[in-house]
Write a structure and sequence with these properties.
25% strand; 14 strands; nine-stranded mixed beta sheet; globular; three-stranded antiparallel beta sheet; 293 residues; 2 domains; alpha/beta
Amino acid sequence: MSMQITFSDLEVFIKGGAGFLAKGPLALVFAEDETELDTTLRHHQQLGFHRVIGFMPKEFSLAPDLADTIVRVGYDVRRDGGLERAVNAVIDVAEGQWVFYCYNAEYLFYPFCETRVVGEMLAFHTEERRDAMLSYVVDLYAGDLDSYPNAVSLDSAFIDRTGYYALARPDAANHNHPKERQLDFFGGLRWRYEEHVPLPRRKIDRVSLFRAKAGLRLREDHTFNDEEYNTYACPWHNNLTASVCSFRTAKALKRNPGSTYDIETFRWHNSVPFEWHSRQLLDLGLMEPGQWF
């Protein structure tokens, strides 16, 4: 028997769906289009999120197994500020819960995720008195754009093995001195094709795992109004970090008329096939196990 859990819009969900937010960890998946929407939702179910919530227009279709197992909320994230509005609305009713957010065709990886569920990893992170986890958005792209003109292919995905760097994050409130334990990270396709990417969108760091609390607000640049949430580590030692492996930038560069004709291939001498395994991301330094072994 079908047991679809559907809410017509964000307001109805926040009023009537609080019970679905009472126990975490929660994964919020925002669908900008239908590209790899099913695989994105399934990936995060398999990581062990207690509840996967899909925000998408009502005309988007889902595989039957997903229609019966995710919470579906009618929503258009492409509206200005759409992501922050929805995440902040969830924060207000999910106090104390761990929350993750991403777009379709984005896949969370954390150290040892093949053998450990996300709740185990977050329990360890909580023991270290951390309420947020930095992630790096690692660009994925199809190796052959003739075969995959939208730049998306799970079977022949590539990533950049080098070209990532960090800069000090200036504090406007303190004469632009660098913020403590905060950096701006760059690399991937946004770095290689920066002439096509507006300056505010070139960073690849995203605080995509965090613990909801009263008054917390996600800002437009993927940082929070609590500065400790934006740090990559505690003062004592390195902490866990994660990667969000994402086709989103490749997709946008190929969809955008201003850039699509400039790009015959995303591959260069530092492209390597993506192995869909946390070990590769650890080896490339794209996430950090901290003290978790």
